[in-house]
Amino acid sequence: MKAPGQLSHKRFDWMLRLIVGTAFVVAAALKIADPAKFAMDVSHYRLVPPAMLNLVAILVPWIEFTTGALVLAGIWLRAAALVVTNLTAMFFGIIVSALARGLNIECGCFGTLGGNHVGLVNLAIDSGLFSLAALLARRSGNRPAQPFFAESGAHYLRLPPPEGLKPR
Amino acid sequence: MNPRLNTLLQALVILLVGAALGLAANAVSPRGLPLLAPEPAAAPEEFIPLKRAKELWHDGRTLFLDAREPEDYAAGHIGNALNLPAQSFAQHFGEIAPLLTPASVLVLYCDGNECELSHRLRESLRPLGYTNTYLLFNGWSAWRQAGLPATMTDKQ
Fold first, then answer.
1. Is A66's CB within 8 Å of B40's CB?
2. Full-model pTM
3. Could you give the ipTM of this predicted complex?
4. Residue B23 and residue A58: Cβ atoms within 8 Å?
5. Among all residues of chain A, which has the CA nearest to that of B103?
6. Residue ranges making up the domain that contains A25
7. SS3 (DSSP) at B109
8. Which of the two ends of chain B, N or C, has the fewest CB atoms closer than 10 A to its terminal CB?
9. For residue A150, how many other CB atoms are within 10 A of its CB?
10. What range does the domain containing B141 cover?
11. What's the number of domains chain A is made of?
Protein backbone atom coordinates (compact mmCIF):
# COMPACT_ATOMS: atom_id res chain seq x y z
CA MET A 1 0.00 0.00 0.00
CA LYS A 2 1.27 3.45 -0.89
CA ALA A 3 2.09 5.97 1.81
CA PRO A 4 -0.34 8.91 1.86
CA GLY A 5 0.72 11.62 -0.57
CA GLN A 6 3.10 9.30 -2.37
CA LEU A 7 2.85 9.66 -6.11
CA SER A 8 3.33 6.77 -8.45
CA HIS A 9 6.15 7.16 -10.94
CA LYS A 10 3.65 7.27 -13.75
CA ARG A 11 1.61 10.04 -12.17
CA PHE A 12 4.77 12.02 -11.34
CA ASP A 13 5.93 11.76 -14.96
CA TRP A 14 2.49 12.84 -16.10
CA MET A 15 2.62 15.92 -13.86
CA LEU A 16 6.08 16.83 -15.14
CA ARG A 17 4.85 16.53 -18.71
CA LEU A 18 1.76 18.63 -17.96
CA ILE A 19 3.76 21.49 -16.39
CA VAL A 20 6.57 21.60 -18.94
CA GLY A 21 4.36 20.98 -21.98
CA THR A 22 1.69 23.48 -20.98
CA ALA A 23 4.27 26.16 -20.20
CA PHE A 24 5.86 25.80 -23.62
CA VAL A 25 2.57 25.63 -25.53
CA VAL A 26 1.19 28.71 -23.74
CA ALA A 27 4.43 30.68 -24.17
CA ALA A 28 4.47 29.78 -27.85
CA ALA A 29 0.80 30.69 -28.38
CA LEU A 30 1.34 34.18 -26.93
CA LYS A 31 4.21 34.77 -29.35
CA ILE A 32 2.47 33.23 -32.35
CA ALA A 33 -0.54 35.51 -31.77
CA ASP A 34 1.59 38.61 -32.38
CA PRO A 35 4.83 37.83 -34.25
CA ALA A 36 5.64 41.50 -34.90
CA LYS A 37 5.53 42.23 -31.16
CA PHE A 38 7.79 39.23 -30.49
CA ALA A 39 10.24 40.43 -33.19
CA MET A 40 10.34 43.79 -31.42
CA ASP A 41 10.91 42.09 -28.05
CA VAL A 42 13.81 40.10 -29.55
CA SER A 43 15.31 43.25 -31.08
CA HIS A 44 15.50 44.87 -27.63
CA TYR A 45 18.01 42.22 -26.50
CA ARG A 46 20.36 43.49 -29.22
CA LEU A 47 21.76 39.99 -29.82
CA VAL A 48 20.24 39.21 -33.22
CA PRO A 49 21.21 41.10 -36.39
CA PRO A 50 18.28 43.29 -37.53
CA ALA A 51 17.87 41.37 -40.80
CA MET A 52 17.37 38.08 -38.90
CA LEU A 53 14.82 39.33 -36.35
CA ASN A 54 11.75 38.24 -38.30
CA LEU A 55 13.13 34.77 -38.97
CA VAL A 56 13.77 34.25 -35.25
CA ALA A 57 10.27 35.54 -34.44
CA ILE A 58 8.75 33.14 -36.98
CA LEU A 59 10.71 29.98 -36.11
CA VAL A 60 11.28 30.03 -32.34
CA PRO A 61 7.61 30.10 -31.21
CA TRP A 62 6.68 27.19 -33.49
CA ILE A 63 9.63 25.12 -32.33
CA GLU A 64 8.45 25.82 -28.77
CA PHE A 65 4.90 24.86 -29.70
CA THR A 66 5.92 21.60 -31.41
CA THR A 67 8.15 20.63 -28.51
CA GLY A 68 5.53 21.48 -25.88
CA ALA A 69 2.85 19.54 -27.76
CA LEU A 70 5.10 16.47 -28.03
CA VAL A 71 5.88 16.63 -24.30
CA LEU A 72 2.16 16.84 -23.49
CA ALA A 73 1.38 13.96 -25.84
CA GLY A 74 4.29 11.87 -24.53
CA ILE A 75 5.63 11.32 -28.05
CA TRP A 76 9.42 11.18 -28.47
CA LEU A 77 9.47 12.29 -24.87
CA ARG A 78 13.19 12.14 -24.17
CA ALA A 79 14.11 14.03 -27.34
CA ALA A 80 11.39 16.65 -26.74
CA ALA A 81 12.49 17.10 -23.11
CA LEU A 82 16.09 17.52 -24.26
CA VAL A 83 15.04 20.21 -26.75
CA VAL A 84 13.17 22.01 -23.92
CA THR A 85 16.26 21.71 -21.70
CA ASN A 86 18.49 23.24 -24.36
CA LEU A 87 16.03 26.02 -25.19
CA THR A 88 15.57 27.00 -21.53
CA ALA A 89 19.36 26.97 -21.04
CA MET A 90 19.69 29.28 -24.05
CA PHE A 91 16.93 31.59 -22.72
CA PHE A 92 18.68 31.66 -19.33
CA GLY A 93 21.92 32.86 -20.94
CA ILE A 94 20.04 35.52 -22.93
CA ILE A 95 18.24 36.86 -19.83
CA VAL A 96 21.47 36.92 -17.80
CA SER A 97 23.19 38.81 -20.60
CA ALA A 98 20.36 41.39 -20.68
CA LEU A 99 20.54 41.85 -16.91
CA ALA A 100 24.33 42.15 -17.01
CA ARG A 101 24.04 44.92 -19.61
CA GLY A 102 21.43 46.73 -17.52
CA LEU A 103 18.77 46.52 -20.21
CA ASN A 104 15.38 47.61 -18.94
CA ILE A 105 13.28 45.71 -21.47
CA GLU A 106 10.31 43.37 -21.69
CA CYS A 107 11.24 39.71 -21.39
CA GLY A 108 9.01 38.58 -24.28
CA CYS A 109 8.84 35.17 -22.56
CA PHE A 110 5.29 34.70 -21.26
CA GLY A 111 3.52 37.91 -22.19
CA THR A 112 3.47 40.09 -19.08
CA LEU A 113 3.86 37.16 -16.65
CA GLY A 114 6.83 37.90 -14.42
CA GLY A 115 6.43 41.66 -14.75
CA ASN A 116 6.81 44.12 -17.58
CA HIS A 117 10.59 44.07 -17.43
CA VAL A 118 13.07 41.24 -17.65
CA GLY A 119 14.36 40.33 -14.21
CA LEU A 120 14.92 37.70 -11.55
CA VAL A 121 11.35 36.39 -11.76
CA ASN A 122 11.95 35.44 -15.39
CA LEU A 123 15.22 33.76 -14.41
CA ALA A 124 13.43 31.80 -11.68
CA ILE A 125 10.67 30.62 -14.05
CA ASP A 126 13.25 29.64 -16.67
CA SER A 127 15.38 27.78 -14.12
CA GLY A 128 12.33 25.89 -12.87
CA LEU A 129 11.38 24.81 -16.38
CA PHE A 130 14.97 23.81 -17.09
CA SER A 131 15.10 21.63 -13.97
CA LEU A 132 11.77 19.94 -14.66
CA ALA A 133 12.66 19.30 -18.32
CA ALA A 134 16.05 17.86 -17.35
CA LEU A 135 14.37 15.60 -14.81
CA LEU A 136 11.84 14.52 -17.43
CA ALA A 137 14.60 13.77 -19.94
CA ARG A 138 16.49 11.74 -17.34
CA ARG A 139 13.45 9.75 -16.23
CA SER A 140 12.30 9.04 -19.78
CA GLY A 141 15.85 7.93 -20.58
CA ASN A 142 15.55 5.07 -18.09
CA ARG A 143 13.06 3.32 -20.33
CA PRO A 144 14.21 0.66 -22.79
CA ALA A 145 15.44 2.16 -26.06
CA GLN A 146 12.74 2.53 -28.69
CA PRO A 147 13.48 2.36 -32.37
CA PHE A 148 13.28 5.57 -34.38
CA PHE A 149 9.62 6.57 -34.96
CA ALA A 150 8.39 3.80 -32.62
CA GLU A 151 7.19 6.16 -29.87
CA SER A 152 5.05 8.06 -32.34
CA GLY A 153 2.92 4.99 -32.85
CA ALA A 154 4.03 4.74 -36.49
CA HIS A 155 4.94 1.06 -35.95
CA TYR A 156 1.24 0.30 -35.64
CA LEU A 157 0.92 1.19 -39.29
CA ARG A 158 3.26 -1.56 -40.40
CA LEU A 159 1.05 -4.14 -42.08
CA PRO A 160 2.04 -7.75 -42.65
CA PRO A 161 3.16 -8.44 -46.23
CA PRO A 162 0.52 -9.88 -48.57
CA GLU A 163 0.36 -13.68 -48.74
CA GLY A 164 2.01 -13.95 -52.14
CA LEU A 165 5.05 -11.96 -51.05
CA LYS A 166 5.95 -14.07 -48.02
CA PRO A 167 9.55 -15.34 -48.18
CA ARG A 168 9.85 -18.98 -49.16
CA MET B 1 20.07 1.90 -33.52
CA ASN B 2 22.21 3.49 -30.83
CA PRO B 3 19.70 5.00 -28.31
CA ARG B 4 21.61 8.30 -28.07
CA LEU B 5 21.77 8.68 -31.83
CA ASN B 6 18.09 7.80 -31.95
CA THR B 7 17.27 10.58 -29.46
CA LEU B 8 19.45 13.10 -31.30
CA LEU B 9 17.75 12.27 -34.60
CA GLN B 10 14.35 12.71 -32.99
CA ALA B 11 15.42 16.08 -31.51
CA LEU B 12 16.62 17.17 -34.95
CA VAL B 13 13.31 16.13 -36.51
CA ILE B 14 11.43 18.11 -33.80
CA LEU B 15 13.44 21.25 -34.63
CA LEU B 16 12.90 20.80 -38.37
CA VAL B 17 9.16 20.12 -38.01
CA GLY B 18 8.78 23.17 -35.73
CA ALA B 19 10.67 25.35 -38.20
CA ALA B 20 8.60 24.04 -41.12
CA LEU B 21 5.36 24.70 -39.23
CA GLY B 22 6.57 28.23 -38.47
CA LEU B 23 7.34 28.96 -42.11
CA ALA B 24 4.02 27.46 -43.27
CA ALA B 25 1.97 29.34 -40.67
CA ASN B 26 3.77 32.59 -41.49
CA ALA B 27 3.06 32.11 -45.20
CA VAL B 28 -0.72 31.79 -44.68
CA SER B 29 -1.16 34.11 -41.69
CA PRO B 30 -2.50 37.63 -42.26
CA ARG B 31 -0.04 38.72 -39.56
CA GLY B 32 2.88 37.03 -41.35
CA LEU B 33 6.22 38.81 -41.47
CA PRO B 34 8.73 39.03 -44.33
CA LEU B 35 11.34 36.33 -43.69
CA LEU B 36 14.20 38.78 -43.70
CA ALA B 37 13.55 42.14 -42.09
CA PRO B 38 14.16 45.00 -44.52
CA GLU B 39 17.53 46.62 -44.03
CA PRO B 40 17.33 50.01 -42.38
CA ALA B 41 17.37 52.88 -44.82
CA ALA B 42 20.76 54.23 -45.79
CA ALA B 43 22.16 56.80 -43.40
CA PRO B 44 20.28 60.01 -44.08
CA GLU B 45 21.85 63.42 -44.47
CA GLU B 46 23.50 64.50 -41.27
CA PHE B 47 21.18 67.47 -40.65
CA ILE B 48 17.63 68.01 -41.71
CA PRO B 49 16.06 71.44 -42.17
CA LEU B 50 13.54 72.63 -39.65
CA LYS B 51 10.75 72.30 -42.22
CA ARG B 52 11.48 68.59 -42.67
CA ALA B 53 11.67 68.11 -38.91
CA LYS B 54 8.26 69.73 -38.59
CA GLU B 55 6.84 67.34 -41.22
CA LEU B 56 8.27 64.37 -39.36
CA TRP B 57 6.85 65.65 -36.07
CA HIS B 58 3.35 66.00 -37.59
CA ASP B 59 3.70 62.58 -39.22
CA GLY B 60 3.42 61.14 -35.70
CA ARG B 61 5.61 58.08 -36.38
CA THR B 62 8.92 59.78 -35.70
CA LEU B 63 10.42 59.84 -32.22
CA PHE B 64 12.21 63.03 -31.15
CA LEU B 65 15.04 62.46 -28.68
CA ASP B 66 16.47 65.31 -26.64
CA ALA B 67 20.18 64.64 -26.08
CA ARG B 68 20.62 67.32 -23.41
CA GLU B 69 20.85 66.86 -19.66
CA PRO B 70 17.60 66.15 -17.75
CA GLU B 71 17.54 69.64 -16.18
CA ASP B 72 17.67 71.31 -19.61
CA TYR B 73 15.01 68.93 -20.91
CA ALA B 74 12.79 69.64 -17.91
CA ALA B 75 13.10 73.40 -18.50
CA GLY B 76 11.62 73.05 -21.97
CA HIS B 77 11.69 70.67 -24.92
CA ILE B 78 10.12 69.86 -28.28
CA GLY B 79 6.57 68.57 -27.81
CA ASN B 80 6.39 64.78 -27.25
CA ALA B 81 10.19 64.53 -27.30
CA LEU B 82 11.81 62.08 -24.89
CA ASN B 83 15.01 62.71 -22.98
CA LEU B 84 17.99 60.47 -23.68
CA PRO B 85 21.02 62.34 -22.32
CA ALA B 86 24.07 61.66 -24.46
CA GLN B 87 26.36 62.12 -21.47
CA SER B 88 24.69 59.35 -19.47
CA PHE B 89 23.45 57.22 -22.36
CA ALA B 90 23.97 53.80 -20.76
CA GLN B 91 22.11 54.86 -17.63
CA HIS B 92 19.02 56.08 -19.48
CA PHE B 93 18.84 53.97 -22.63
CA GLY B 94 16.87 51.20 -20.93
CA GLU B 95 13.96 53.59 -20.33
CA ILE B 96 13.71 54.41 -24.03
CA ALA B 97 14.63 51.03 -25.53
CA PRO B 98 11.13 49.46 -25.26
CA LEU B 99 9.85 52.21 -27.56
CA LEU B 100 12.45 51.64 -30.28
CA THR B 101 12.91 49.19 -33.11
CA PRO B 102 15.79 49.18 -35.58
CA ALA B 103 13.35 50.63 -38.11
CA SER B 104 12.37 53.57 -35.88
CA VAL B 105 12.89 57.01 -37.39
CA LEU B 106 14.56 59.22 -34.81
CA VAL B 107 15.23 62.95 -34.75
CA LEU B 108 18.01 63.84 -32.34
CA TYR B 109 18.61 67.33 -31.12
CA CYS B 110 20.33 69.43 -28.50
CA ASP B 111 20.78 73.19 -28.46
CA GLY B 112 23.23 75.79 -29.71
CA ASN B 113 25.38 76.07 -32.84
CA GLU B 114 28.26 74.13 -31.32
CA CYS B 115 26.32 71.48 -29.46
CA GLU B 116 27.88 68.01 -29.86
CA LEU B 117 25.38 66.06 -27.77
CA SER B 118 23.11 65.00 -30.64
CA HIS B 119 26.17 63.72 -32.55
CA ARG B 120 27.28 61.76 -29.52
CA LEU B 121 23.82 60.32 -29.08
CA ARG B 122 23.82 59.25 -32.71
CA GLU B 123 27.20 57.54 -32.27
CA SER B 124 25.85 55.69 -29.21
CA LEU B 125 22.73 54.51 -31.05
CA ARG B 126 24.43 53.44 -34.29
CA PRO B 127 26.22 50.30 -33.00
CA LEU B 128 22.94 49.13 -31.44
CA GLY B 129 21.31 49.02 -34.88
CA TYR B 130 19.39 52.31 -34.64
CA THR B 131 20.73 53.94 -37.79
CA ASN B 132 17.65 55.72 -39.07
CA THR B 133 18.54 58.96 -37.30
CA TYR B 134 18.31 62.62 -38.28
CA LEU B 135 19.96 65.55 -36.53
CA LEU B 136 18.21 68.87 -36.08
CA PHE B 137 20.80 71.65 -36.05
CA ASN B 138 20.48 74.07 -33.12
CA GLY B 139 17.42 71.97 -32.32
CA TRP B 140 15.70 73.42 -29.28
CA SER B 141 16.37 77.09 -30.07
CA ALA B 142 15.40 76.73 -33.73
CA TRP B 143 12.19 74.87 -32.83
CA ARG B 144 11.18 77.32 -30.10
CA GLN B 145 11.92 80.43 -32.21
CA ALA B 146 9.73 79.02 -34.99
CA GLY B 147 6.86 78.73 -32.52
CA LEU B 148 6.45 75.01 -33.08
CA PRO B 149 4.77 72.73 -30.49
CA ALA B 150 6.84 72.62 -27.33
CA THR B 151 6.53 71.69 -23.69
CA MET B 152 7.65 74.47 -21.36
CA THR B 153 7.86 74.69 -17.61
CA ASP B 154 6.19 77.56 -15.76
CA LYS B 155 9.57 79.19 -15.12
CA GLN B 156 10.14 79.87 -18.81
1. no
2. 0.60
3. 0.78
4. yes
5. A50
6. 9-141
7. strand
8. C
9. 13
10. 47-152
11. 1
